[in-house]
Amino acid sequence: MQQIKGLIFNVQRYSIHDGPGIRTLVFIKGCPLRCLWCCNPEGQLARPEVMYFRNYCTRCRKCVEVCPAGAIKLRNGDVVFDKNLCNSCGTCVEVCPNNARKLVGMYVTVDDILKEVLKDMKFYARSGGGLTVGGGEPFSQHEFLKELLWKAKEYSIHTAVETSLYTSTNLISGVMKHVDYLFVDIKHIDPVKHMKLTGVSNELILNNIRYVIEEGLIGPKDFVIRIPIIPNVNDDHENLKGISEFISSLKYEVSVELLPYHELGKHKYEALGRDYPLSSLTSVFIPPKEHMIKVIEFLTSLGVRIVNT
Amino acid sequence: MNSYRLARLVDEFYNEIMRFKPSLCHERAVIFTESYKGSEGLPQVIRRAKAVKEVLEKMSIYILKGELIVGNQASRPRAAPLFPEFSVSFLINELEEIPKRPFDSFTVDDHVRNAVREISGYWLGKTHEDRVKYLTSLVLPDEVLRAFDIDSFVLNDVIYAGVRKSSGDGHIIPNYSNLLKLGFPGILKKVEDEISKLDLAKSEAFKKRLFLEAVKIVYEGVLNFVERYSILAKEMADVEYDDDWRSELITISEVCSSLLSGPPKTFREALQLIWFAHLILQIESNGHSVSLGRLDQYLYQFYKDDILRGKISREDALELIKCFLIKMNTLNKVRPWSETRYKTGYPLFMTITLGGQTREGFDATNELTYLFLEALSEVKLPQPTIILRVHSRTPEKLLIHATKALIKHGGGLPAFFSDEVVIPALMNIGIRLEDAREYAIAGCSEAIIPGKSLSFTGGDCYFNLLKILEITLNEGCNPRNGLRLFRTSKMMSEIKSIDEFIDEFRKQLTFYAKFIVPLTSVTSAIDADLNPTPFASSLIDHRIEYGADISEGGGPNNEYSHTIIQGHGIANVANALYVIEELVFNRGLLTLEEFRDVLLSNWEGDKGRELRRLAISLPKYGNDMDCVDKYVTIISRMFYDEIMKYRPLRGAVFGLSLQGLTANVPEGEVTGATPDGRFAGEALADNASPHPGTDRTGITATLKSVSKIDHSLFVNGNILNIRFHPSALTDAFGSVEDAKLIRFVKMLTTYLIDLKGFQVQFNTVSAEILRAAQKEPLKYANLIVKVAGYSAYFTSLDKKLQDQIIFRTEHII
Which helix (H) or strand (E) holds A27? Predict the structure, then answer.
């Protein structure tokens, strides 16, 4: 039987921030959200893409010569890459002698992934780790996601999913049957602002969070809500208060983890030929420790349980 | 005692030591030579004993302010004494160069220079080196001698024979348990008892008498040496104004004086006794890797008794241990330049082993295991190497404590060894289970039984396995000198599969392997003839009863010594074989001959560049991919099979190792371009580690790949260098994060216990800092890195080696 294929953009072993123990993290490509601070922009589009790292390029023109779509041109001695013409065939990546070009996104079967995941079974066993599916948005390929998790459970691998839960509610329970641990983000409590910051409203997300809890699809010990802390974007008291009110209205007490804003993904925007969305926002900054402590203290004073997973 | 007061003194001592630059000291050489001049005609073992005794009686001694443990090796800290009995030619030839060396340099004062010139006349033609040259030329066939560099002792760029021009056998761990029980006077008494028991009617009694006499002579010197410190401390106390220091000097005097009359009674006396013994071993023969064994085990009873009797506090003990560790860094060793290249960073390879199991197989962790780790993390010095033995029942608390010490020390210590591998490896060469459980590490990763293994015998031999691959591709010819010692049985054009190529590789290996027997025998025989070590012998079980120096071998436990043979470049060989398999035999892109020509041109031209790009893009060892990893399995096993066909002159077996010190740099220099994508002259991968920068699938993949070598075949160990970005263990703000630490520990135990990895060590300095240190060496003078099996100051290393350490894949999580 032919297996369905999924589109992923990375498999990362020894991941230690994405659930209990030592884990292998599978990145699903494709996401309905466009968060301004997204650090994995190559995970957003649901098709393979070519990234171009200008600082490795020696302008040797090999890629210009081979590109069948004519997407790469030499202008005034410089390489110009027209993403719109690119059909992601990867020919230029093959010939580049300096690894300045990288194809992100590969179609793989569940078995392909499991082969990689199974390699670290000994590490999972000792540390209580397993497989985490993140992205992108795992639910954007929910059939593939479901099969991957189901098969992982056949091998008794502990499973975790990192999702925005921006997905049809009726798809959730089928997937959650095979999920041992769940991370969901709340990026903003105000639907209008959420729309502005991520491109979608948060109503579906908040409803789905309530849904997984009330349907008993995940237990309190295995559920973490994450809040990215983006200074001057979503760390105002009003928003934090709103989020904490929502959390305390849930059926059980959920642990909350804070993710301080960072700019480690900034260079990837350039490689994708895109502008860094937050670059126009000059008031944003990488929060120092004292800043995070203040946020933690404020949320704790509102009764939120902050954890460090 | 007030431990704050002690801490101040130890700090003062530390600062004092750091002021001294490495230098040469002529005192030992001069006294030793004078003694030899006066003992011509006497038996060699007696001559050496007398000479060592006279050195101990006449060399200058000093006590630096703040040192709680006393005893010096040379006329000032970090000065290297000279051992003319091994070689004077290197001293004469290199005397002017030694201060100008780009790394591992020593200052040479005028009076030292003059003294060396004065004594060298006596030694010309009589040294260990002279004898090695004579014997080697005698035993090697002429056609092989043509390819043998007699000055650096390298056979056709393939085998480096560690015949040691500057030092004795070393690689020994005394039975310190026994020494602590008897003390120096107790051992001397044992010798005297043995002499009185001798039955002169038996023929072997004659030789035995000589050896026992030698031990007796050395011990007179030893006791005199200890007494001199007792007197010196007392004299210094009489004129000291600093009250704290004066009271310490009085204690020092009492401690030394107590050691003259019997075994140690306190923790401090025990530590002082071990220091004296360790020091005298260094003075006696300058051996490499003279190690200390399981100090947490030997010293625990003293510590416990002192604590119970209220004689010492935990903090006092910590300061004493710190002082002991600082003292290790006052010792030094000078080697010929050709040897220095293989061992850069002033290493003495002195190792302390902690943790592990008892003889009965129970967990051996105690309070001192923790204290030694704590002391290590506080003194932050490159020596000694401290290693932790890990087994399936090692407490997690200890592993977390050790990881915190690793981060705080910052220079790759402690390293971690697996009992689950080392014990079977020792049993594989015939060591009994209970003895195997008592193992400790000597040097980098050599597992030996303290008090039982009789040093190494015969120096060591390093195999450049990648060079053998290059020679195979050239049908037996070494392109660097055009010599063909052994032609391949097939021309490259006749080879039709990778298996046939590997078969030719094996035949070349077989050809070279047999030379380990003459090359190590030469050194072994000369050691027994010229360099007996009666003091070292007195600290090894049964030698007094058996009545023969360890250099002669024989007696109980003779089978416990294993001569080290190292295999280097295994990562490159595996990668190269896979590239050949894929490009030549699977894809048919070019023939073996064409490939060889591209390599001889050092990847020149468009074709060369394109081919190199392809070679680099193929999977490499270190990414948990069986297609290439299978070759480390095959080659490591082949190396074992080929070497284990032979037996060394004196010891039981050859003991294999995949560790490589810093040999990967000079060995790379003599190896042309290789199919793995390496340019001619580039360094090889270090030890058993993947080639720098080629392991890109994460730490677990690296560990899985390395575990595909059967580590229990390599009793002298494998070394795996892993470089972590500091953020891998800290949170976004630089503080140590417990959740990360626990996962780190789990990763570690999975490798050592489940995957059966021999050893692993970690550097946690970021590439940015290492680069900054290259630019501003003065600012980073104290930056320590784990080099091979030892740590050293980063800025003191060969630039090529620095680069290689920077290129090691940095795992960021």
Answer: strand A23-28
Residue % of chain B over a pLDDT of 70: 98
**Contact state of B750 with A21 under an 8 Å Cβ cutoff:** no
| A158 membership: H or E segment, kind and range | strand A158-163
Answer for the pair B705, B623: CB distance below 8 angstroms, yes or no.
yes
Global confidence as pTM = 0.93
Q: For chain A, say whether B545 makes contact (Cβ under 8 Å).
A: no
**Cα–Cα distances in Å, from B715 out to B173, B291, B426, B562, B637?**
16, 17, 6, 9, 13
CA-wise closest residue to B458 among B528, B560, B532: B528
- Whether B773 and B797 have beta carbons less than 8 Å apart is answered as no
Q: A47 — contact with chain B (CB < 8 Å)?
A: no
Tens digit of each residue's pLDDT (9 = 90 or more) over A268-291: 999 998 999 988 777 899 999 999
In the block, which residue shows the tokens 């001069």? B30
Could you tell me which of B764, B794, B798, B809 has the C-alpha nearest to residue B377? B764
B743 close to A (CB below 8 A): yes
Over 70: is that where the pLDDT of B209 sits? yes
Helix (H) or strand (E) holding A260: strand A255-260
- In sequence order, which residues have a C-beta less than 8 Å from that of residue B402 and are 6 or more positions away? B373, B388, B414, B416
Q: Which residues contact B155 (CB under 8 A, 6 or more apart)?
A: B144, B147, B148, B149, B161, B512, B515, B519
Report DSSP state, residue B581: I
Pairing of strands A101-104, A49-52: antiparallel
pLDDT bucket at B189, cuts 50 / 70 / 90: very high
A5-46+105-306 shares its CATH topology with A49-103:
no
Whether the CB of A21 is below 8 Å from some CB of chain B: the reply is yes
Position B369, amino acid: T
Q: Which residue of A has its CA nearest to B729?
A: A16
| Chosen CATH of A49-103 out of 3.30.70.20, 3.90.180.10, 3.30.750.200, 1.20.1600.10 | 3.30.70.20
Per-residue model confidence as pLDDT tens digits over B4-14: 778 888 888 88
Selected residue of B611, B616, B699, B700 to mutate for chain A interface (largest A Cβ count, 10 A): B700
- Rounded to a whole number of angstroms, the distance from the CA of A222 to the nearest CA of chain B is 16
Q: What is the phi/psi pair of residue A56, to 5°?
A: -90, -15
A5-46+105-306: CATH topology: TIM Barrel (3.20.20)
Helix axes B267-285, B314-328, angle to 10 degrees: 10
CA distance B714 to A220: 49
Least CB–CB distance from B739: residue in A129, A288, A308: A308
Q: Bin A178: left if φ > 0, else alpha if -120 < ψ < 50, else beta.
A: alpha
In the DSSP assignment, the letter for residue B95 is: T
- Boundaries of every domain in chain A: 5-46+105-306, 49-103
3-state secondary structure of B342: coil
B740 touches chain A (CB under 8 A): yes
Backbone dihedral region for residue B149 (phi beyond 0: left; psi -120 to 50: alpha; all else: beta): beta
Confidence of residue B299 (pLDDT cuts 50, 70, 90): very high
Say whether pLDDT at B54 is over 80.
yes
Q: Is A262 on the interface with B (CB under 8 A)?
A: yes
Q: What pLDDT sits at residue B813?
A: 54
User: Using CA atoms, how far apart are residues B353 and A258, in angstroms rounded to an integer?
Assistant: 42
**Chain A nearest CA to B701, separation (Å):** 7
The partner residue sitting opposite A123, judged by closest CB among B740, B747, B813, is: B747
Write the CA distances from B199 to A114, A260, B193, B195, integer angstroms.
Answer: 74, 82, 12, 9
Give one DSSP letter per residue of A44-91, joined into a string: TSSS-EEEE-GGG-----HHHHH-TT--EEEETTEEEE-TTT-----H
Nearest C-alpha of chain A: how many angstroms from B554?
45
